[in-house]
Amino acid sequence: MVIGRDALQPLLHPAVRRDCGVGVNYSVVPDFVSISGLVAVFWTLLRRTGESRLNFWLVGWGLLLIHIIAEFVARNTPGSADGAWSVAVAMLVLTANAFLWASNDQLEIGWRNLSIVVFSAVPDVAFLTLDTYGRHATWVYALLTVAGMGSMLWMLRAWHSAADRPTRRWRTSLVLVAYAVQGVLVAWRHPGDAVTWMLVWHYLAVAEFYRATAPRPSASVRFTMISFIAWAFVFPVANLMYILWPHVHVDGEVWNLPKFMVATGMTFTLLEEQLSNAEYASLHDALTGLPNRRMLARRLQETMARARAAGVLMALVVIDLDEFKEINDTLGHAVGDEVLQWAARQFRAQLGQNDVLARLGGDEFAVVLTDVPDRDAADRIAQSLRVALATGMVTRGRQLAIRASVGFSMYPADGDDADRLYAVSDRAMYARKPYRQKQESPPDVNGDRLISSA
After folding, report:
1. What are phi and psi of 73, to 5 degrees?
2. Are 342 and 359 spatial neighbours (Cβ–Cβ below 8 Å)?
3. Dihedral sign of CA atoms 390, 394, 400, 404 in order
4. Maximum Cα–Cα distance across the chain
5. pLDDT mean across residues, the chain
């Protein structure tokens, strides 16, 4: 996309279009090669990562390829220049719509989603096409402005995200303000400036949607947002420079820079998210979503350090499901997985917000209780975790009796390091296992022993 005196002005104001019939203008070929490379990169990333947003990012960059082809045609075929310039600008609007749609939760490529992206831009495309051909019917521009507002409201009503960011009220306000400004420019008989404004607000909206719907406000997200803002202001800045300094030449790659910054930002956003997902997977159990043994060790060390500094107590509870192997052997691993997920939900409901529940593997869970006032309080919580399973679980038409054994240790009374606390809790838990109770009495519990039992 070449934006500047040689492209933006002919694109927005056909009356000042330069002669396109002398020689062949290859100035957009490097852009075509670059964007084709970007499309290939994003296609490869889509196949490797399955990142759903890439579907509509690919649509957007593909539309930019059409924009470049149309611009090449406009520069080299004078008889088709008006139509080609219309297509070139229309692709910029459609690209913005595709990037807007890429920020929501409906990211499957299908006729419904593609039709929303395309048809919501029809009034705006008709508006800029009339301007390209130099039509001056103000009432038609006004009608298309109202239609554009309605179609964009329709698009953003269909658009949604789980977190509702940006909110529906914000999205509605954006559309109303954007088309109100366009309406004012139409009333002042400046349809060319209205087209410039159309491009500006579309890309500013993309910047805000990109920021608001990002999982976290990372450096790459902020960089991409700033790049979209720069892309938005390329249009009025180039227009202003042409008016104020018509003889100043700005190389086309300067106007193209924000576009490549956006592509770079998108790529790094994907990289950051992949790294974040990999780190999350390494610290969490895939079945229950709970912290795993590695994450528990980290959180236990942190909690012990805070307890030591504040002079308070904490407890480590170990939980093991009784006879879980029999459930797997008789009903299958699918039912066993359901039992583990159900047990995790039951345990979580008994704990405070700051307590850490983890799955250590198999049928074993652990809980870090923060700021426990005394041993009796830890014992009550441990018992509540055991009793939480007493109602049993209904799955596939069967009532399953699920029971657990628990053991806990106190910091610092039962140990001043993580391994010692876990060993004490584990021994206490196994001392209460049903099969152990049939063979021997549980160990005596008193203040002289390191074993605490629940």
Report:
1. -60, -45
2. no
3. negative
4. 101
5. 87
Give residue 47's pLDDT.
86
CA distance 368 to 299: 8
Helix (H) or strand (E) holding 207: helix 191-213
SS (H, E, C) 48-108: HHCCCHHHHHHHHHHHHHHHHHHHHHHHHCHHHHHHHHHHHHHHHHHHHHHHHHCCCCCCC
Fold of 293-439: Alpha-Beta Plaits (3.30.70)
Query: Which phi and psi (to 5°) does residue 103 adopt?
Result: -90, 0
What pLDDT was estimated at residue 445? 36
Q: Which residues pair with 404 in a beta bridge?
A: 321
Q: Read off the tokens for 120.
A: 């919501």
Give the separation between CA 292 and CA 359, rounded to whole angstroms. Answer: 5
Tokens of 239: 């227009």
- Entry pTM: 0.78
Distance of CA 145 to the CA centre of its chain: 32
Query: How far is residue 24's CA from residue 234's CA, in Å, rounded to a whole number?
Result: 26
CA–CA dist 452, 302 (Å, integer)? 22
pLDDT in tens, 379-414: 999 999 999 998 889 888 788 889 999 999 999 999
pLDDT in tens, 326-370: 988 888 999 999 999 999 999 999 999 999 999 999 999 999 999
Give residues with Cβ within 8 angstroms of 407, minimum separation 6.
317, 318, 382, 424, 425, 426, 427, 428, 429, 430, 431, 432, 451, 452, 453, 454
Across 64-68, 284-288, 320-324, 431-435, least confident range: 431-435
Q: How far apart are the first and last CA of the chain?
A: 70
Strand duo 393-395 + 398-400: pairing: antiparallel
- Rounded alpha-carbon distances, angstroms, from residue 263 to 1, 183, 247, 269: 13, 32, 31, 10
Specify the 3-state DSSP secondary structure of 4.
coil
Residue among 195, 138, 253 nearest 13 (CA):
195
- Rounded to whole angstroms, the Cα distance separating 116 from 98 reads 10
Residues 6+ apart with CB under 8 A from 244: none
